[in-house]
Design goal:
145 residues, alpha+beta, two-stranded antiparallel ribbon, two-stranded antiparallel sheet, 4 strands
Length: 145
């Protein structure tokens, strides 16, 4: 049996999101109160500038709609005091969300970057990872059990 790892391909709601800097219509915007990077479908022209700028491969063009969309961190759920859907749906309960400072206190060993992810200095992602040692290696090797 092999051991698998899956890259995280979700919006990290970065402190300095590359997507908002390049959007020509203002469809991509960071909410200064919540920190959530939001997308306005009505303003989007589907140019994919935001998608090309994002080092995490978010957002993505929805061809059938002719616009780009991305994770909204379930802002509507959060407004009702609920978790984002991904947190509740994770079968391993490996995801948490909350204020970054609170999560840093709860997980003092957590880091913001691993070898498989883009350099965090590009966008300052709002992300913490309880990484295994192998995720920190500069030349990770797939291991089999």
């Amino acid at each position: 049996m092999s051991r698998l790892s899956y890259p995280l391909h979700s919006c990290n709601h970065c402190a300095q999101p590359a997507c908002t800097e390049v959007c020509p219509t203002g469809a991509m915007e960071k909410n200064t109160e919540t920190g959530i990077v939001m997308h306005d479908d009505e303003k989007c022209i589907g140019c994919e500038s935001c998608a090309k700028a994002c080092p995490y491969e978010q957002p993505r063009l929805i061809e059938s709609l002719g616009i780009v969309q991305k994770c909204t961190l379930c802002h509507d759920h959060i407004a009702r005091g609920e978790n984002p859907v991904c947190v509740d749906a994770c079968p391993l309960r490996a995801l948490e969300w909350g204020k970054l400072d609170d999560l840093k206190s709860k997980h003092p060993e957590a880091i913001s970057s691993i070898v498989a992810l883009p350099d965090e200095s590009q966008t300052n992602p709002s992300l913490l990872i309880d990484a295994r040692t192998s995720a920190l290696e500069s030349n990770p090797v797939q291991r089999f059990i």
